[in-house]
Design brief:
Layout: E1 2-6, H1 15-28, E2 33-37, H2 43-47, H3 58-63, H4 68-71, E3 73-74, E4 80-83, H5 92-96, H6 105-111, E5 119-123, H7 130-138, E6 141-147, H8 153-169, E7 175-182, H9 189-202, H10 215-219, H11 227-230, H12 235-249
Parallel strand pairs: 1-5, 1-6, 2-4, 2-5, 6-7
Antiparallel strand pairs: 3-4
The chain binds adenosine-5'-triphosphate (ATP) and magnesium ion (MG).
Length: 251
């Protein structure tokens, strides 16, 4: 079972778009996926059509006694289960304040979970707070989406520092599975420059696959479909299938 956090503290980096469509593309290749939504915004829960019940979901997973398996909901997407975010998740800092080992809450639950999935993918909020720390402590790997139309390299460097601290103090096995350039618009010089400096700075850590800017990806959530179902022949579908191949090659 591979447990991967999708993280970048920068807002709008395509974390959710990547989590959800990578889940669908891996499931299309026969992998069983558990998506955990640790973002109080609940964008990935909404996208996969999870009905959010306040007594269930990620808040209870982190704060309650319930086992992970008891909080998993089936989605209508083949091969994809989910633990949704709930509004309560925005109060998590207070709920976990003063708890010894608050960063370890998710890790404890995942360690005790049945190996029922091939992948656990964790969507995270645009902060480096307790939720992202829980994701980085529970996961073995991180995928870092970077939106190529805005310069975010300093943010990636900051995230890598956080990853190094987590590795040192909480999770020695944590590695960067890859950085993925997203929202790449080949028509703009600026985008090409950002992708080039990303590759220059982070070398082989950057996935070969780039996710192109594609309006279909922005439309798909309104229909609660993955890009593969919503627009099977779109560039977005091709790119997320290619990214899934990159990820499968690392198995
Ligand atoms: N390849 C793409 N082409 C076009 N639009 C995209 C693409 N990837 C993401 N977007 C759009 O960019 C916006 C931000 O994407 P997304 O919500 O996935 O980012 P995020 O990192 O999860 O944001 P947040 O930090 O708020 O959680 C969304 O409106 C999404 O539809
Ligand atoms: Mg998001």
């Amino acid at each position: 079972m591979r447990c991967i956090a999708i993280a970048n503290q920068k807002g709008g980096a395509a974390k959710t778009t990547t989590t959800v469509n990578l889940a669908a593309a891996l499931a299309e290749r026969g992998r069983r996926i558990l998506l955990i939504d640790l973002d109080p915004q609940g964008n990935s829960s909404d996208w996969v059509g999870c009905v959010r019940n306040e007594s269930e979901g990620a808040f209870t997973l982190l704060t309650g006694k319930a086992a992970l398996a008891d909080l998993v909901l089936a989605t209508e997407w083949t091969g994809v289960d989910a633990i949704p975010a709930t509004k309560a998740l925005s109060g998590i800092e207070r709920a976990l304040a003063g708890e010894v080992g608050a960063e370890m809450a998710l890790r404890r639950k995942i360690s005790a979970a049945p190996a029922q999935w091939d992948y656990i993918l964790i969507d995270t909020p645009p902060t480096l707070g307790i939720l992202t720390l829980n994701a980085l402590t529970a996961a073995r790997e991180v995928i870092v989406p970077v939106a190529a139309h805005v310069l975010g390299l300093a943010g990636v460097a900051q995230l890598k520092e956080t990853i190094a601290v987590v590795r040192e103090r909480l999770n020695p096995d944590l590695t960067v599975a890859g950085i993925v350039a997203s929202r790449v618009d080949s028509r703009t010089r600026h985008c090409a420059d950002v992708v080039a400096s990303l590759r220059e700075t982070f070398g082989s850590e950057v996935y070969a696959t780039e996710i192109r800017e594609n309006i279909r990806l922005a439309e798909a959530p309104s229909f609660k479909r993955s890009i593969l179902e919503y627009s099977n022949n779109s560039p977005g579908a091709a790119d997320y299938r290619a990214l899934a191949e990159d990820v499968i090659r690392q198995e």
